[in-house]
Amino acid sequence: MIGFIGIGIMGSRMAARLQNAGKALVVYNRTKAKADTLVAHGAKWADTPREVGAQADVVFSMLANPQAVEAVAFGNDGLLNGLKPGSIWVDSSTINPATSVKLAQAAAEKGVHFLDAPVAGSTGPAEKGELVFFVGGEEKELEKVRPLLDIMGKAVQYKGKSGSGTAMKLVNNLMLGQAIAAFSEAVAFGESLGLDKKGLIESLFAGPTCAPVLQFKEPKFLKEDFDQADFKVSSIYKDMELASEEAYAHNFALPLSNFVKALYGLIKQQGKGEYDFAAIYSLLKK
Q1: Which residues form the active site (predicted)?
Q2: 140 counts as catalytic
Q3: What domains sit in the chain, N to C, each tagged with a CATH number?
């Protein structure tokens, strides 16, 4: 039995990939209704994270932030009180490396193996099984769950000791947030010069400077419709804040990303935290 905790935008799609591959699931989510589709297709519902751990040999979690992961892990009804010795907990949440290390240590005290395995990719890749997993922890435990990761992703990159996967995810999302901001500013600038937006975007895509993720966002830029989020403003803001905190702890400056982070914070302050993070274009447009 495979456990899955966190049936949100990403977790629902990842769990569905496992279910569609014939894997038996036991699931938990703070809002039960979000798991209704999985349960309707045969997944078992658990009332607490502890019940998930008691029934599963491998548990995946995909949660919003470090606080949510710790809330699931600890306490009388927490996952760590249910997991059996020898079982594996794979956390795909985007959190800070220090929290991943703390969770790995707490798991080890219970005889449980912990892997931090956040992903690169949003809703589209999650639905298609094209995520990229960045994994930290024991490599031999990774090999045990690799077949499951292969169902949900197109690549698995082992990064080293506990916390290394989450460290790589923060680096990835730091660049992601800046790439969307730079593209948004370039498009808005081009429009201010009188260039047609569709042709402008096509020309940018034809050059060497655009990351593949930007092409995925093209419809949102053309329609200026950002209220249906593939990746929320609040999520990129949180991820860049985690990176900023980690940089401070390691005496490293992030001058460019801290400015971009503030722009996403401003959008969130304007009540658009649930919008797609490409909404930064609307902020920068003349």
Answers
A1: 169
A2: no
A3: 2-161 (3.40.50.720), 168-284 (1.10.1040.10)
What is the C-alpha to C-alpha distance for residues 286 and 283, in angstroms, rounded to an integer? 8
183 touches 214 (CB < 8 A) = yes
Which one is catalytic: 102, 159, 169, 238?
169
Phi, psi of 231 (to 5 degrees): -150, 120
Handedness of CA 250, 178, 15, 227 (dihedral sign): positive
d(Cα 146, Cα 229) in Å, to the nearest integer? 29
How far apart, in whole angstroms, are the C-alpha atoms of residue 57 and residue 2?
Answer: 6
Q: Which 3 state secondary structure label does DSSP give 134? A: strand
pLDDT in tens, the chain (286 residues): 999 999 999 999 999 999 999 999 999 999 999 999 999 999 999 999 999 999 999 999 999 999 999 999 999 999 999 999 999 999 999 999 999 999 999 999 999 999 999 999 999 999 999 999 999 999 999 999 999 999 999 999 999 999 999 999 999 999 999 999 999 999 999 999 999 999 999 999 999 988 888 999 999 999 999 999 999 999 999 999 999 999 999 999 999 999 999 999 999 999 999 999 999 999 999 8
Q: How many residues does the chain have?
A: 286
**Residue 271, burial from CB neighbour count under 10 angstroms (0-12, 13-18, 19+):** exposed
